[in-house]
Amino acid sequence: MPVLPTPLTNSTVQAQLGLPATLVPGVLRQLADRLDVLAPGIVRLLVDMAGSGSNVGRVRFAGGFGYQAPLQALASDTDAPPDATPAAGYSTVTLAPYGLGMSESFMQRILADAAAASEMSIEAFMAQVPDSFARTSRDATCTIGAAFGTRLGSSSVSMSVDLALALVAARESVDGATDQVLAPAMLHPAQMSELRASARSEPAFQAELAAFEQAQTGNRRMRLAGIDYLATSSVSTSGGAYKGFVFGEGGVGFGVAGATPANLPIPSGAEAVYLPQFGLVIFKRLDRLGQQVLGVSALAYVGYAAGDSTVYFQRGLDSKV
């Protein structure tokens, strides 16, 4: 038995009788970008390909009638009218498998305190799979938006009120674009900060405190000149530019192959959870029980694609990094 020196000190007593740490009740969650593009008004479910026999979906469009085809003047009252020139096409969405899993040992599960188990168990992972799917969808949407062919701004200019007004003008210049609901423009947080800084020096805000206050509220959201802006770290960079973007509502969509107990009968012991609207299935893995390991897998059969630019207004919003 160790003999403790006197006077007793915290370090000597703690080494023999104390604990290495005092646990604060609960387990806190790390900060994360929680923008969900699957919320109404941004990205839409286009097609469920389950049972279709194909992993490629086609979103069809047509034109050449109505407002696109005015009646033609005829030379005389006996002339036959000319035929219209209809147009048709499609954009495609191709499925791919996505997946993520988690495992924990028997001993970890047995020894874990209630707070740690509630945040770090396979059940906690299963409960948060929809959030992982939302993150995947947001990243895919930003990858698609970064590839829009028609873009405003460049790698040599900062995001500004001028660029926001250029977007308004670009939308007005495209026939039918102002009749289409516009999804919120998506910017990198640095672009949003630059836009707020530019708004601060805009004369229109200097005499209107309420409008200035609304524009400067730091919540990764902003409304300017009738257009809503959202900021997300999923917006990518390329060629020295942040690749922000905007599109008409539904101009980026996703297709799924919805798994159900009927088309994917996973054995009951795996306790499968089906979310066919996302093409998701979540189930407990039983293959490593002999190794004292509990596990769970989440699989999604999903694809993402942009709509055709003749159907949806699309613009990139570039600014320097």
Keywords for this entry:
321 residues, alpha+beta, 9 helices
Structure, explained:
- By secondary structure, this protein is α+β, with helices and mostly antiparallel strands.
- Helices cover 25% and strands 28% of the residues.
- It has helices spanning 10-17, 106-111, 114-120, 122-127, 129-146, 161-173, 189-200, 203-206, 209-215; strands at residues 44-48, 56-63, 87-94, 96-105, 151-153, 185-187, 221-224, 227-231, 237-238, 241-247, 252-256, 273-275, 280-285, 293-306, 314-320.
- The strands form 4 sheets. Strands 1, 4, 11, 12, 13 and 14 form a 6-stranded mixed β-sheet that branches. A 4-stranded mixed β-sheet has the order 5-15-10-9. Strands 6-8-7 form a 3-stranded mixed β-sheet.
- The longest helix is centred in the middle third of the chain and has 18 residues, at 129-146.
- The radius of gyration is 28 Å and the shape is flat.
- 28% of the residues are buried.
